[in-house]
Amino acid sequence: MRKQKGMTIIAILVFAFLFLPLLLIIVTSFGTESAIKFPIKGFTLDWYANVFQTESFIAGFKLSLTIGVLATLLALLIGVPISYVLSRYHITGKSQFKSFFLSPTIIPGIVVGYVLFQWIVIALGLPVFMGLLIGHFLISLPYIIRVVGSSLEQMDISVEEAAWTLGCTRQKAFTKIVLPNISSGIFASFMLAFVNSFNNVPVSMFLSGPGVNMLPTSILSFMEYNYDPTVSALSVMIMLLTVVMMVIIEKTLGLASIS
């Protein structure tokens, strides 16, 4: 009994440590003071309106949305066939390939960002937009392989084998049998990869160029010269967008199956 009470207290403290900062951000986004303060002395929605009047935020949002969608679609085009090969074929070094493709999710983001900066910007000298697209494609690919691979392993392979025995080629069975059966996994992987790309700070920070900033770097630049609750309001809007996407993932596939 004492052990259960101790675990309950630890769980409450962990949840408080995680959620109290978020609660402070939500409360301060409605404050009337010109600086972020807690507790607030009045209630206003002006900071939310100010988000839409700040050009750097609008431009950063559009660029983050464009890069996030394009990088995730590109990761889907390449990640789905890779997941199929890794789940259906016995190839030499299969576990090493899986570890390699999942490595960007294990290595700290600041290290990934610095390596991509050295390779894409310094060594190859690619344009900023192309560099951001490649960088976000590389950090999106592991999520596609992880989630789609999980869906393929849960799918009954006898369904696909039945299609082969009835005259389907491997390509036709893949498009008409496999893809429809893992469509929820593909959709969930798209949402998960997009959320991680949209909210990514290290890669966006290292690969951004003069006048070309994604939303996370625009927020950091704004905070260098301003400390008003506009950033709190924008953070609340991003949190709501992320929550909506995670709810959609939960409804389509279930978070437990991709953890």
Structural features, described:
The protein is mainly α and 259 residues long. Helix content is 78%, strand content 0%. The protein contains twelve helices and no strands. The longest helix has 34 residues, at 55-88. It is globular, with a radius of gyration of 22 Å. Helix 2 (46-53) crosses helix 12 (230-252) and helix 3 (55-88) crosses helix 6 (128-154). The protein has a single domain (45-253), classed as MetI-like fold.
Regions with little confidence, pLDDT below 50 for 5+ residues: none
CATH topology: MetI-like fold
The count of domains is 1
- Describe the main β-sheet briefly: none
Report the helical percentage.
over 70%
Subcellular location: Cell inner membrane; Cell membrane
GO biological process, one term: transmembrane transport
Family: Belongs to the binding-protein-dependent transport system permease family.
Keywords: Cell inner membrane, Cell membrane, Membrane, Transmembrane, Transmembrane helix, Transport
List keywords for this structure.
MetI-like, globular, 12 helices, 259 residues, ABC transporter permease
Helix-strand blueprint:
Layout: H1 2-28, H2 46-53, H3 55-88, H4 94-106, H5 109-123, H6 128-154, H7 157-165, H8 170-181, H9 183-199, H10 202-207, H11 215-225, H12 230-252
Helix pairs in contact: 1-12, 2-12, 3-6, 3-9, 3-11, 4-6, 5-6, 6-9, 7-8, 9-12
Question: What is the gist of this entry?
Answer:
The protein is an all-alpha fold. The protein has helices at residues 2-28, 46-53, 55-88, 94-106, 109-123, 128-154, 157-165, 170-181, 183-199, 202-207, 215-225, 230-252. It is globular.
